[in-house]
Specification:
about 40% helix, Transcription Regulator spoIIAA, 10 strands, 2 domains, 10 helices, single chain, about 280 residues, 8-stranded mixed beta sheet
Length: about 280
């Protein structure tokens, strides 16, 4: 089997996927809320090593239909390089139907529509993408400074290319001071793009990370309590007016309230569930 370069992360939905590390670490690796790849130096693996791992996994899982290309943001790879990986993967796994990657807001914006169309034709079917917040003020403070318009442009290119997208939003990431701004501008992004999946998770800061995180809020960051997190969830759902069918989930381990539905069809039911919890359990 493969001797993975640890730590190894993958989205929950990729639990049954073959995982191939095309890169090690994250090419950006500056976000103050994230510790996933801080122990790694970013590295693009050689095609020889990647192909060797594909060969190894193909010898064990010939019937696999799903593959996830790790680590943090494989979309940073040169398009021609990524196509070679996709071609080899589909060659070695004859039943392969889905290949997915993490993408940062920066490297997705840098890809042209033509490149994304070509990647779709070569079998890239799903991109995982962290919006975190739609507020540039908040994004600057968590050291992920990209404008909402660039995120909108990037995600709309994904849709136009025919690639599915799974985006995440972090409740509580703005603290109390910027909570209203955070939710308003994040909902504004979702309302201007056509994503496939939308998930919310709640801010969790690992031991030793809070001091660094708070510092960028001028020392004034106040963590939301459980009720305030759920109130943000409610406000976010209220402001969503999606123009296409979006599968919505709040089932990450960080979430104190699990929700599942399809927007816009289930919006009123989801809001009713949140309101019931706020009224009866979080007094």
């Amino acid at each position: 089997m493969i001797d993975y370069h640890q730590p190894l992360y993958r989205p929950p939905a990729e639990a049954n996927s073959v995982i191939i590390q095309a890169t090690l670490g994250c090419s950006f690796n500056k976000c103050t809320f994230c510790t996933m790849y801080e122990s790694k130096n970013f590295e693009i693996r050689t095609l020889k090593d990647i192909f060797t791992d594909i060969d190894t996994m193909a010898s064990y899982y010939q019937d696999t239909k799903k593959m996830f290309l790790a680590d943090g943001d494989v979309l940073c790879l040169d398009t021609k390089y990524l196509i070679q990986i996709l071609d080899y993967a589909y060659l070695k796994f004859p039943k392969l139907r889905r290949v997915s990657v993490y993408a940062s807001a920066f490297n997705l914006y840098d890809k042209t529509l033509e490149e994304l169309v070509l990647l779709k034709e070569k079998g890239l079917t799903l991109i995982y993408y962290g919006i975190e917040s739609g507020s540039y003020e908040v994004l600057k403070r968590i050291q992920k400074p990209i404008s909402s318009q660039k995120m909108i442009d990037g995600l709309n290119k994904v849709y136009e290319a025919g690639i599915k997208s799974s985006v995440t939003v972090i409740l509580g990431v703005a603290g109390k001071e910027y909570s209203t701004l955070h939710i308003k501008e994040t909902a504004n992004i979702i309302n201007q793009v056509k994503v496939t999946y939308l998930s919310t998770l709640q801010l969790m800061l690992e031991e030793g990370r809070k001091e660094k995180f708070v510092k960028n809020f001028d020392g004034k960051f106040v963590m939301l309590n459980e009720r305030e997190m759920i109130e943000e969830q409610k406000s976010f759902l209220e402001q969503l007016n999606t123009s296409n069918k979006v599968i919505f989930r709040s089932n990450h381990v960080s979430n104190s309230l699990l929700l599942a539905g399809t927007l816009p069809k289930d919006k009123h039911r989801l809001l009713a569930e949140v309101s019931y919890v706020l009224k009866n359990y979080l007094l």
